[in-house]
Automatic annotation (TrEMBL):
Gene3D superfamilies: YVTN repeat-like/Quinoprotein amine dehydrogenase. It comes from Camelus ferus (Wild bactrian camel). PANTHER family: NADH-UBIQUINONE OXIDOREDUCTASE (PTHR12219), WD REPEAT-CONTAINING PROTEIN 93 (PTHR12219:SF17). This is WD repeat-containing protein 93 isoform X4. Pfam families: WDR93. One of its GO terms (biological process) is electron transport chain. SUPFAM superfamilies: WD40 repeat-like (SSF50978).
Amino acid sequence: MFSAPPSVMTSPKGNRAHKMKLPIFTQKGMLEVPSPTEKDWSKDDEDNCVFSDPEQEVDSLPQPYRMINKLVNFLFDRSWEIIEERDVLRTAELSRIQPTIYSPFIESTLNKMPNCMAVSQDYVFIGGTKGFSIYNLHNAKRIYVWEKLKVDVTSIWATDLGNEILIAPVDEMGIVRLFYFYKDSLFLIKAINEVDDTSKQTTCIKMEISEGGDFAAFLLQGAGDICLDVYKLPKESWLKEVEYPQLSANSKKKVRQLQMNTLDPVKTDSFEMDINICFRGDVKLSLPVHIMKIKPPKPVTGTTFKSPLEVFAKIEDCCGLGSGQNHFIKDSQWEQQVAIFNATYKKYLDGEWEEELLSMATFHFLLPSFIIAMPAEVKNPPGVACVLGVHWTGSHNFFLYSLNRTLKDKVDPESTWPCAAPITVSQLSCCCSYLVLACKDGVLTLWDLAQGFSLGVIALPERCLCQSIHFLKYFLVHKGQNMYPEGPVKSQMKCVVLGTDGSLYLVAASGTQRPTLSLLVERPVKHPEEAICAVAPVRALPGMVLIFSSNGSVHLMDVATSQIICAFAPPRSYHLAVPWKPVFVVSSHHPCFLLRGDHPDELGSASNAEDIPNSIFYFNFKACPLLENITRNCTIPQTDMLDNAAFPQVLPLEKRCENFFQKRNEVEWLRCSGLNSDSTTY
């Protein structure tokens, strides 16, 4: 038999205490002194007391077990909260209406992973290993391949010149080359920035070709310097030289035709183009003419002028007005301001300064308009760019440079548009009639370049800055369907703005009316994987944009209703890079877009890298039943707009004045009729 401990056996008081443990009541909360009168006593005292069993009381654990116990309890509580949150999200996901998902119309399988794509007319230009390839847009057949480089092509542009196409691929070394594609021949024009001395080699960071292909600008960086080179393209001479090629010394040599690499035929209802393209290396085309080299604006320093009259004399014909370069502030005043600033914000300035990056430029070719003043002696053909608009990183100014100059002329801006804050993003519409400048403070300035006035200023919500701007071709909602007006529309613009927080907005401006801002997609707080990473307008579908999300989903949205119409997805799941930068291109002339597929999930090992299928998916909007009616009927006749009072903004000025006076006469007639009836009754 076991004997009890001596302390228990010799302590009868402890035995009595153990036997006398009875259930007790403990009151919740703070104890209060009861009222002297019984009628004021609370009748809910029993509810305020909790039954406590002394046998169930838990003694306080010593350290470190008490801390471990708290951590374990916290872990279980937090796990349960996560389980509940996921359950709520799963329930909400199941309750959400899933859009119709369409598969690609054609899948084009490539030997190697493509790096970039461009579409022009009926052709697709794909940049990849050691060159680029040309594909038929309608049947995905490869009709030509140019692979003469030692490095890969990282980006490519294709500009429609009418019956010809100007191609500009950029390789990994940053060298940009111009190609001329005419009928069944491909011509190399020039490597813009290729030099023999590698120490002087520059890298092409950004490029832009004017509408119609009359001018081209290249932002080049090298040796710690950066500049913007502008060229005039002799496209009329190119057309004559390819139609009537001049015989050269080696013209008797047989033109070498590169071997055609054709893919397996694809069954489709679209027509097939049997084109035999050859590279014409024997024909030398006219070289682009270098007309201007623009460098970043110099930092504002102390003045060298001795009087204010010299400052005004420096400004000739208002050129440079607003740039801040011509002023009467001395070096001592600048030094004093810097000293005051450093003394005021000394605690914020302590620490290491990051190295200042080179200033980057954003530039656009602008057409002649009322807002751009040109000399009277300069006669610019209609539809040909005449001015280059440029703004640099961290600059408040938007500079305008005339393109009617030579390389010997002094490079000074003809005019300057100063803004209240540094310009971060700018975008020019496809028709070159509208321009939007987004500043660092989230304010957007809308310009109607064709008519020569500002459409207004509008600000994004607080803490939301502009990431990108995408113009939409102006559309109207007619009988519940988005439709394009048949005739030209003046001073009417719509664009979508992607915010830095992942939100999406629709900005609309109409004449002198105040511009409006509508929220299309909220900031993804609960679903960060659905954050928008790219947006692309679809010109074949009025008021529609493609939205690419970080989770790999692609949706088509109607901006008029903020509703998702449908979704597009490849036939199998793909492994996406983080962050995902989709490689896609949307055709401006055909109702389709192309999307590159990344590596599949099941083939992620490096040993099977060569066996990974590299595909480009072709999505046709006409093959989607939900969009078939929209692609057929997307234009509203001019007669319907003139007869419909719901579209006063598209009516001519004479018609709007006539409707205004007619409505006013009707109101006056009704008012007079009401007065006469009242007097008769009286």
